[in-house]
Write a structure and sequence with these properties.
Blueprint: H1 16-43, H2 51-74, H3 78-98, H4 107-128
């Protein structure tokens, strides 16, 4: 018999709670990464030329961790929740970047956004297969 109680999410509508938690975890992970890189730039002879690579690495780690979290929390359709979380992170970072006065839009930025969504998909696939404690 079909369950019409509304307790399980439909494929067309993601569990907003899982995606929201994944997005929050992604943003917190990025914040920690930014603080670590800023400290390293201040207290070590690390060159600012490495900043674009470090920034993209932070974004990748943030999306993977957030997608893992969201998919594990949802317990199903990891690719779906990972993709939505990666897309949400990419859009959030883009909106935050647009508030800066020195932002220039480029095809490379679009490609990085697409890569973050794809990476989120893989993170979600891995996350849904992790055992829940």
């Amino acid at each position: 018999m079909a369950d019409f109680s509304g307790s399980s999410p439909s494929p067309s509508r993601p569990s907003a709670v899982a995606v929201l938690y994944g997005l929050i975890v992604s943003l917190c992970t990025a914040l920690v990464g930014i603080l670590i890189v800023a400290s390293a730039l201040s207290w070590t002879p690390l060159s600012e030329r490495s900043l674009p690579y470090l920034t993209f690495t932070i974004h990748v780690l943030a999306v993977v961790v957030g997608a893992l979290w969201a998919a594990r929390m949802a317990g199903e359709r990891g690719w779906y929740y990972g993709t939505i979380t990666g897309l949400g992170y990419a859009l959030t970072v883009t909106i935050l970047a647009l508030t800066s006065a020195e932002v220039t839009w480029s095809p490379a930025a679009f490609i990085q956004g697409v890569l973050l969504v794809v990476i989120g998909t893989f993170g979600g696939v891995i996350g849904v297969n992790l055992k829940r404690g």
